[in-house]
Amino acid sequence: MVRLKTVRRDAPWSWLSGGFADMMAHPVISFGYGAAFTLIGIAITLGLWWMGMLALIPVLIGGFALVAPVFAVGVYRINQVRDAGEEPKLLDFWRISPSRLTQLGLLSVLLFVFFLLWARLAQFIFAMFAHGTEMRLDAFMEFIFTTPNGVLLLGVGTAVGAFFALVAFMVSALSFPMIVDKDVDAITALVASVKAVFSQPFVMATWAIQIAFMMAVGGALFLLGIAVVFPWVAHATWRAYKDFDPQPEPSAAAASSA
Predict the structure, then answer these.
(1) CA–CA separation, 109 vs 70, rounded Å?
(2) What is the pLDDT of residue 196?
(3) Reported pTM
(4) Closest CA to 15 of 186, 200, 249
(5) pLDDT tens-place string over residues 56-113
(6) Phi, psi dihedral angles at 3 (to 5 degrees)
(7) How far apart are the first and last CA of the chain?
(8) Diameter over CA atoms, the chain
(9) Residue 112 to residue 247: CA distance in whole angstroms
């Protein structure tokens, strides 16, 4: 259904270096998207602080990362415009054709479903292991690291979060930049993304670990690091997509009629 190129095992490192060069080529637009993404994270954090539920910050920020590819479409558009030999502009996102926006919307809904499922499961896990625990961050951290139920909560929550992160990565590794770049449907783009993960697991595992590490470091810097990490990873993801160069194969019916 989709044909992919084979990439080098050390390709993720070149994606990062190329992505950094792309980001610095148009820093105002790139950091603008990064700042917008960061402001949403800050808004979530402030909302939880206002409700006295700071303990949920890691859960919802981690879940929010599941839908990061949706917000990276504008960054992918920067690369697409540059590849066409044109000068990127901040609102180039709105010049994407309606048919592609529809397919991007379908994939976005899928990722938001993952986010909602993760939030619901996180609520269930918390209720199972930490019912009655104070939601102040200091009290919750003490509970997590000093009690058996806290350690179980940390282990189970991390495992469930890792599973959702893996599924979201498989769905979005190539699919969003592919739809931005080519007139394909969401299913074809999703298949290309999943196929890349299964056909070159070492490369994609390395890439997933690098993304997770960078996002964790960015989040640890009071979310301000995300303003740099987010566009950097998005530009690098475009490089990954270009390296794999997914090409839809014609269906059997189309091939026979040609």
Answers:
(1) 9
(2) 95
(3) 0.86
(4) 200
(5) 666 666 677 778 888 889 899 999 999 988 888 877 777 788 888 899 999 999 998 8
(6) -105, 135
(7) 17
(8) 68
(9) 27
Q: What is the DSSP string of the chain?
A: -EE-----TTHHHHHHHHHHHHHHHSHHHHHHHHHHHHHHHHHHHHHHHHTT-GGGHHHHHHHHHHTHHHHTHHHHHHHHHHHTT----TTGGGGS-HHHHHHHHHHHHHHHHHHHHHHHHHHHHHHHHHTT---SHHHHHHHHHHSHHHHHHHHHHHHHHHHHHHHHHHHHTTHHHHHHHS---HHHHHHHHHHHHHHSHHHHHHHHHHHHHHHHHHHHTTTTTHHHHHHHHHHHHHHHHHHH--EEPPPHHHHHH-
Listed range (125-129, 172-176, 190-194) with the worst mean pLDDT: 125-129
d(CA 114, CA 129) in angstroms, rounded, equals 22
CA–CA gap between residue 83 and residue 20 (Å, rounded): 16
Amino acid identity of 37? F
| Separation between Cα atoms, residue 56 and residue 215, nearest integer Å | 18
Residue 253 has pLDDT above 70, yes or no: no
